[in-house]
Protein 1
Amino acid sequence: MEMYRRTFAEINLDHLAHNIRVLQKSFPQTPFLCPMVKANAYGHGDVQLARFLETLGIEHLGVCLIEEGLLLRNFGVKAEILVFRGFDREGAEKIIQYHMTPVVSTWEQIEHLEAAASSPVGIHLKFDTGMNRLGFRPEEAQKLFERLWQNKKVRLKALVTHLFNGEDALDPQGQSAAQLRALHGVSQIFKPFNIFCHALNSAGIISWLSLQRQGATPSHPLNLQNWGLRPGLMIYGYNPLGDKGVVDLKPVMSLKSQVGTYRILKTGETVSYGGTWRAAKESVIAVVPIGYADGYHRILSNQAFVVFTGQRVPVVGSICMDYLMLDVTDVVQGRDLKEFKDQEVTLFGYGSDGSFLSAEELARQAQSITWEMLTSVGERVPRIYTGQDAGFISEEIGGE
Ligand SMILES: Cc1ncc(COP(=O)(O)O)c(C=O)c1O
């Protein structure tokens, strides 16, 4: 891999394997453990992660776009690929040709599949139980049953819904509980089919783990026997509920760079566009080659901290497209700047010195969410795979 700028995202496959094992051990009976690898596997590299997940025994993968599924197939991914976004007639043909499983949300999509299929195509049927985005209304279930029962072209495999407030899943009177009850109700209509249901994202899954720890509450709507799971954020090492006690997850991505140059500022001089930061004393500024075009949000200007020699130092001045600046005055004080040549900077994740800065904390400072911080990491930032099985990725995909 050519890399003349030492700015990269380090992807720790051991941590990913750890997070997956947590799920596999906690839910050995689930019929469907479907890590979400859409949006370039939340920024971690979809082909690489999909191939690696297969080696961990993962048999189902979730994407949003047909294009994402095609990419995985073209790189030899064999797992069942669920495509969550809708499709037209042309899309139906691609889905069938590449042996993907569509998540069907409209009557037209059923027609497209029937028109395109020469042999029965397996589908998951999506119900809108409150998100108000995609899916059939529960009231349509009976008509759908009649449409699909003994259908020669379309074979129903599962029912799906999506929690819009998974964070409340532990509350038996909450919105998630109502959604789970609604899908359970729908599943009763489809009982003659040999199907299962899936609804839980990371927040729902971790809530369920929490419920299991609390002991038997068989009537709780989260007690889902034979339901599938669709973890996203948690496999990448972050817990949307923030409660570290429930589950031990390890962040997979670390965003890193190296100081390019240092500038010594006199009192009163300013840094970067608009001069939004002014030196209150003689200051040492480190210039780091990563900017908003790499996914480090501009809103973090004069807000965030990064790790430099194991210590937190502030980002000062406006973040540029390709650079950001740090005030390292207090850290380098009294020392020769040559000692800090090419110094590593950790934007989030683990530093080589063992320090850790959470993408979740950065997301809060950016008035965003962890999902956005991870998926924003730009295309021009190389992903470097580490961990025991990193060699596998290089050999299989042709990376270095
Ligand atoms: C349909 C669907 N299922 C599951 C997930 C995973 O969600 P999370 O990353 O919160 O676990 C997503 C993510 O947006 C999704 O769109």
Note: Residues 36, 84, 162, 201-203, 230-234, 240, 371 surround pyridoxal-5'-phosphate (CB under 6 Å).
Protein 2
Amino acid sequence: MKILVTGGTGFIGSHTVVELISAGHEVEILDNLSNSKESVLDAISKLTGVSPKFYKADILDKARLTEIFSGTKYDVVIHFAGLKAVAESVEQPLKYYENNVEGTINLLNAMLNTGVDNIIFSSSATVYGDPGVTAYTEDLPTGQNITSPYGKTKYMIEEILKDIAMSKPEFSATILRYFNPVGAHPSGFIGEDPNGRPNNLMPIIMKVAQGEYPELSIYGDDYPTSDGTCIRDYIHVVDLAKGHLAALQHIKPGISVYNLGSGKGTSVLEMVAAFEKASGKKLPYKIVGRRTGDLPEMHAIPEKAFRELGWKTELTIDDAMRDTINYLRALA
Ligand SMILES: NC(=O)c1ccc[n+]([C@@H]2O[C@H](COP(=O)([O-])OP(=O)(O)OC[C@H]3O[C@@H](n4cnc5c(N)ncnc54)[C@H](O)[C@@H]3O)[C@@H](O)[C@H]2O)c1
């Protein structure tokens, strides 16, 4: 299939591009490089032997989108482009609504104007807000008690996709709700290398390991969990990338929603221990106060993806730690 991948030089996008090319798909990448580097394209070429066509473009630039979509007839768009820093979205909500929601509307207009009916969208477990349970199935209500503008942009985009599907029977949107992506490609060529100050646990652990930050701050050890720290469902980015390939093989008209997670919860202290085991080094950390909006515990029930897409995770937290450390060595 001929696929446009927006955000294809980013963390999850780049790993997905590698899987798509390896499976024989023809891929083009659109990214404004606001949170990624052009050198990722060389890494993709080294890994796959293919140099995908690259548009350095912004989804806020309607004229550029029209130009790109009028040049090629895509079968599918896989849409990763978006801003994802939760704390920044609280400080600068309009930046997030503009980039994520308006950007997606522009993209959808460009698609529909050129007869492209299929989209796979990067959503997030944050759309569930605070559902009052720890194990998440796709049929839980969404949109209630979402604490950040970032999470709300994902919810709003899901609603927009549902409305388009109501108006246009041939439209197909596959909504993939990711849990917590971690790890790197086992080659060490690509991984998570965000510009600016990261918010998520793994990139912060990486900065501590690199000596850039003195220690990891753990937000609260008095939650009602096994060791008092928050529990999340971490998924290796290569497994996540393969989830997109599985979704691509099962595109059908209408809205399809899948949780992509491992189904297993891991606490922050367990993540620290796994990193220490893989690196053979102590990871300095301190316990600080709880962070507003953090839920004690959540994990995916990923059974729908297994049943309908034949997809499940194969890699472990230990694999993710090994590959992250390998990637850090390659970066150094
Ligand atoms: N990493 C996570 O924890 C996580 C969890 C759930 C959902 N997601 C979603 O998955 C997607 C990919 O996440 P990621 O971790 O790879 O993030 P990332 O920041 O590494 O990748 C996003 C890419 O989009 C590009 N981009 C941003 N705004 C753009 C714009 N206006 N025009 C063109 N390109 C633009 C960035 O330069 C970057 O390369 C995002 O939509 C994110 O919200 C991520």
Note: The first strand starts at residue 2 and ends at 6.
